[in-house]
């Protein structure tokens, strides 16, 4: 089943006939188990075809819904076994997914779509049946009998169907996250409706462990909290290994959030259960006021989760194990603290002051740029070093490497040395408009036109000229494909970057005139000669990936960094080779001390190190760790 068919079903939802109370005998159920057990010997395509056929039959079979759910548990077990095999083809991919990998993704999604159709039909029938029973229940005229409330059996079938439907939606959202796709609003509409229905029938907190075969969650409420937390953690701003680890740890993490229909704290995080929106943070521009009595909202408090993360950090450090989990927790704790717990309301508007700049990512590329486009080997006088001290790798970029630089706009940048910045990357419309100009100029150059062929970024007003996505498709399909690529964003949460401030528009135009034959892919080098004082080293704290823009909330770690080399001075079994390092001086404006940034996994606290630049070197000691990420570690340093 493809996406369009699934969307058509959700929007139409024709009336369903109530199935007869017809049961299969035990023999036929055993045959289904044998069929499921025989699937692994077949090819993946054959398994998928048979599972899709079986799910289609179960969705329309005239059998009792209790039996349908029991049979679905058998089919779901077989489905998950196949999905686990299919996911191995793409979940470990670092970059964008290939066409063949996307076919596996679509196959997995198709199975989940069919699962949802089966459970959704059961939910609708059970809800109609419950409503009919409530309407047929005649009022009791006797006063004393009215005091005796009739015993109402809990709708277990409805609870199981809602749970399994939410579980299928959750797995569908996980697949979209792996492909870096935002979940469409119709999915959130369905999720919110299911949870709201469970609350109406008082089954959201019901323990279903004895009725469903899963370790994901004990109740509908716990499962819905996992889905909400997955959205709040902004997984699309992380790399695939982090996304996979989050999805594995989410059942444990979600137990430490507080989610209630009545606000217990002054939390600003809520989800409108009658909307098609994911969880959101209350701001002055929020559409509704969730605290009004007529609103049906779920309020989420993340402070207990933050407390758990801090405790977990200490536990992992004490045993010095699972450092990947430690770094992930550190990243998420920093992100949710910045975005939700201690958020500083600073919403940029179209009238906010703006300034252009260039952002360079990746530690080695940053080092190469700061070093004046000199590689690590060339800047440390390698000829004077013994072999054991020589770097094991160099920082010079490969000739076929994608340039790590791209253009941004800065908001609220009147204070050059402010701690936090808002960086807006070129939007989808900007990219399309820009690419349209470049394509036309390149075509003129190819045709031998005598007109000026300037393939640099066009002026700011030309880039941000409004254009619809429909118009964009006629400009360049390749641009839309690249923007919707299934690859991690160039900036992720806790990504290190170098920000090169542009002096002014006039300076850019002069630089462009000198380099008018230079290709766009290398245009960022025009700003390599900027004064060192215009460089800032920063880290992304939050990344907003919207349909119309990509915006980073960043912390400036320091200004005017110095590229150098660092090696261990301890005589132990660790390598003594020099590695690239970035030195930041203490700054009163940022309230920072002198520090060194190095690639992760090389040093530890209290290490004696040698810093080297050209032919000079000095001994230092690494003090406390200021930041530790997957990409880099920042240490406070003192001279010896």
Beta-strand content: 15-25%
DSSP strand tally: 16
Structural class: alpha+beta
Termini separation: 67 Å
Low-confidence stretches: 143-151, 449-469, 475-484, 514-530
Describe the strand arrangement of the main beta sheet, using strand numbers.
5-6-7-10-9-8
Shape category: elongated
From the alpha carbons, calculate the radius of gyration and give it in angstroms. 29 Å
Total domain modules: 3
Helical segment count: 19
Mean pLDDT: 81
The helicity comes to 40-55%
Question: Could you give a short account of the major beta sheet?
Answer: 6 strands, antiparallel, barrel
Protein name: GTPase
Task: Give structural notes.
The chain has three domains: 3-237, no CATH class; 352-362 and 404-556, no CATH class; 378-393 and 561-640, Thrombin, subunit H (Beta Barrel). Helix 3 runs antiparallel to helix 4 (65-87). The strands form three sheets. A six-stranded antiparallel β-barrel has the order 5-6-7-10-9-8. A six-stranded antiparallel barrel has the order 11-12-13-16-15-14. Residues 143-151, 449-469, 475-484 and 514-530 have low confidence and may be disordered. Strand 15 and strand 16 form a beta hairpin. With 640 residues, it is of the alpha+beta class. The protein is built from 19 helices and 16 strands.
